[in-house]
Amino acid sequence: MIDITIEGGVAVLTWDMPDRKQNVFNQASIDALVASVEQVVADEAVTGIIFTSAKKDFIAGADLETVEDMCKGGRSAQELHDGAGSLSSILRRIETCGKPVACALNGTALGGGFELALACHHRVVVDSSRVQLGLPEAQLGLLPGAGGTQRVPRMIGIQKSLPLLLEGKSLDPAKALKTGLVDAVVPADELMSAAKAWLATGPEPTNPWDRKGFKVPGGGMDVATSTQTFMVGTAMFTDKTYRNYPAGLAIMSCVSEGLRLPMDPALEIERRYFVSLLLDPTAGAMIRTLFLALGRANKLARRPADVPKRTYTKVGVVGAGLMGAGIAYVAARKGLDVVLLDLSQENADKGKAYTAQKQDRAIGRGRSTEEKKQALLDRIQATSDYADLADCQMVVEAVFEKRPVKAAVTKSAEAVIATDAVLGSNTSTLPITGLAEASCRPENFIGLHFFSPVERMPLVEVIRGERTSDECLAWSLDFVQAIGKTPIVVNDSRGFYTSRVFGTFITEGLVMLAEGIQPALIENAGKRTGMPMAPLALADEVGLGLMVQVGKQTREDLGDAAPNNPSQPILEKIVLGGRTGKRAAAGFYDYTREGRKTEKRLWAGLVELWPVSDVQPSVESLEQRFLFTQALEAARCMDQGILLSEEDADVGAVLGWGFAPWTGGPLSYIDRIGAANFVEKCDTMTARFGDRFEAPPLLRKMAAEGTSFYG
After folding, report:
1. What share of the chain in percent tops pLDDT 70?
2. Residues that are catalytic
């Protein structure tokens, strides 16, 4: 695991964990580190130490499955304290071992891997733009718990360190050098010689903060600017996160308290805050969903295993509007040839121009070149002739949300494509089984629900119709992976999963409006949940007219069987007045354009259509309604077999419509509360607000048995 070679008094400790693509910290690797360090420190022939890696990267950080296990509960705070402190202790031992220690970073070093580098006395990193250095723990709901919150501010000062620690962003070698977190950036073939050259200078084997008279760059906690930094930083963080993410405040507490102390007691402060986050359910839920489950989804966990993988070279997109143009752009960006088809050559050319516009913006920001732009455009063939789809392995239909229109596209495409080609329908609500009735080969027909804007939204909801084959599902997942998106797999139903659950957030906001709740209170409560947008603003973005149309289509399709939609009369009332949303510059908000920026404010006429009640509820009660209504609908989708796994439910919710990431997703949110407690609260809300809060049989069974979604 750690190979030791000693030559000329220099001990080189080379990490190479067997059976892993990357080096990580777990108990076994920490034990190996302890043993290796003690061996070379005790060896009198060793005058200097270098850490490096035999793998492409240095150390990727902690083994997240190990961290998730620590977050699951069942361990006392003392047990967590002792376990979490083992890495911090050995890094402190390295720092104070009495021998100079260099770190030769041959690749990416994140989390604990970078904390190891920070504990060394000198850091040399390979000159490569692919290398990333940083402490991303805040993105996991945690803090750097092996000295990161103490060493970074002591190296570069408080003002520079807080953004890096709070945002968890990584730096490339050049930026890390400029920031002061590494000492040298050198070509790959000079990495080890540079580290040895530093050792040859006979450097002092201590870090600055262990020397007499050390002062924090820019001033410690005893200067007025530091106090002001923390006051402003705390206010800004609270305003941005509504205290949903405890890690941020814990990081600031670690820095402010730790910098008043010598390093050893400061590390103990950090360790205690780290344990407090392990005991909070936020970190465990975020790790499970945003990293482990997300990783499994990206590796196509739901792919039928016995179907040979399909490699894509050419795909077709029918419909060159915003969605179709976006799909064509991301496919071309991943190296696929694309046929972009529309009713007219003019429309198809406009869709292709979308790629040019995106690339022009990227060129202006220094992120692309004219050559790359032209290469992308050369991959996209704009056409109005269906015959050009003939050799496409996959055709994605992205036309208007009308059955007859989609049916016509299906027939025209299938007339020319190969019999084993897949036809995917990009739809957000229309059942796939019904759309497949227009197909002469429904076994090769599937739903591919992309999200707008396609180039920014990472999720694709893959919907399996009643006759969709295993081969079609597998090949569709191969396609989603090929264009760099994350898939979840769901069974067919109206609205599928994401649109169905996402709609409950908007519906609840509209119902609150009709109840006489202040519009501003509704919007603030919606944002405080951690959702990316407030419900009324989000309704304007989606389009009020579109939502009215979808509601009418549902009633036409299902008749008396159509579910009760309490938001429909509210939407129809505002649309009747000509207010159809953001595109019309008039919806629940008024929109004014000032230069390149659009300003919005709640429409004053709302209180005339829906008078405000004299008694207003607490913002906390509204937050609960917003989160419960979405979690309930997700649980119903599990109960009805629409969702195939808890992980897809949570990954799809966070990536698809931004369901409060701090919860880990709607099913993780139910587990956080506990099924019995959740059902009890649902019963109370049902009695007060109506049947939409009725708990499904699955949740009642879980409550009775004391079980949870994740165990």
Report:
1. 100
2. 115, 137
